Queue: 2 jobs
Job 1
Amino acid sequence: MNRYGIIKFIFITCIFLALTSICADLFFTKNCTSGLSNSPSNKIQRLFYESHNEETPIFGSSRAEKGYYCDSLGADFYNYGMPNASFEVIQLLLKPELKKNKTTPILIDIHHDFFKHDAYENINITTYLPFINKNDTIKDFLATNGRLNNYQQIPGLRYYGFYTDYLRPVVSSRSKTENTLYIKGGVFDTKKSSTASLEKRISAREAKNLHFDIDSAAQEKLLRIIETNPERKFVFVVSPYHKSAKKTVHNFEEMLNYFNKLDAQFENVIFIYFNTDNYSDDLWKDTVHLNIFGAKKFSGELSRELHLKRVILN
């Protein structure tokens, strides 16, 4: 083969590999990331690119993802809870939601770390990779938080090192032995924790020393969101803490007082907290997450409270 033939062969091979990588990337994105209903990326797809004008969204961390059972809350609820989501992440998710022509309330789950933000702890990059090349809001968010890298914009390379993370929910949804139920964005543990397992978690939890802190910059952003969107009701909810976890947050009452003040200050803010110290241990996955039985109980009680406060009118 002459020199021209070698160059031609290399060129054709590179084109073939590039096209194969792009096609594989498109297939993987559709079937294992944003196109998979039980993938966190699908929640981004739903928020940024779909309307759902009658939907009442729920935002928060894994406490929301595992604690709010939509079918027990009522019609047209959807759970956008994501593991480790801080207020900074929730603020990103609220941007497309608040641009929609909607008047439904917005539920936001509250916990003691709500205002704390660590870009590497609170931002799961796998959730956002499928959207970097087509959404400037997400791209800017990652860049601002130091989570954007050049290779993440190259089809065929961007998922390198993360395939296992994406494939896990695929396997879970198809496994008959899996003890996880995915429904309307929620991720629920269907198996009750053993007494020994929960007691071990309780012992570990009781050794912690936790605190609710207010970040002034984050607080300003939150107040601005509330003030500039008077047509939407913001319902802040403290989902259940196991009593062993609740007592490790030494200024728990200060957290409640803060959101009670927001409730009193703004007509479009409602704060809901009811004491769940009496929730039995068989309703818990661990000390900060309910299992499906606890989620159904809590969501049913929350639904009654939402009707009582006339947040839900039907």
Note: Residues 3-32 form the longest helix (30 residues).
Job 2
Amino acid sequence: MIYNNDIDPNVKMWENESDQIVLSVIDKYAKRSEVGIAKYGTTLETNNKDNYLKHLQEELMDASLYLEKLMTQNKEITKLVRDHKNDAELGAKIRNLIR
């Protein structure tokens, strides 16, 4: 792992008992950074040309669309679970929903 904790030696962030969800997100950030550097030839730290407010707005707009889609799917799946007591029938309905 590329991380260390020089900030506070009392934090056991990178030991085996640490939060694997947090570590997973940190790994994704590191990989995303590597992809961005390869794609754009600069780091976020050194890039002073982009309009970050516009980028943020666009990303948040996309996020709200993804959220709406997932909320709609959640409602549909919840309704299917309530309406179909047969597991095989329910499985077929859910598989049709996510295709």
Note: The first helix runs from residue 20 to 40.
